[in-house]
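ok so i was messing around last nite and threw this chain in just to see what happens. nothing serious, just curious
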Amino acid sequence: MLWFPDFFTKFLPGWALNAPYIIHSDEALLATASSSCSTFPYAPAARELPHGPVIFTGSMPLHRFKEERPLEYERMVKEGTLEQHFVPAPTQAQIQVAHVFGFAAVAAASGSRC
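result:
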């Protein structure tokens, strides 16, 4: 009904679209909450979370890229495109902010009763 409102409102009143809209938005909220409850509490068990700032800075050290994505690294080396993807290293302030957000997210999710 939400995909084709013009079609459905030809034989339904306009207010009939309110129910699917509410159901859809509530389900999206539940999906987000469920995902958070099943992901963040287990993040400390991962190798570098919440300490790994990659999720917040968008970059990772080259040695870690080689280790975690060997096929992609080899492809870029063969194509000669590796250097095009280099970015400046995150500043110390960016890393500190990333750690604060990481710890806060894990603490908030771990403290909740999911």
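not much to say yet. The mean pLDDT is 80.
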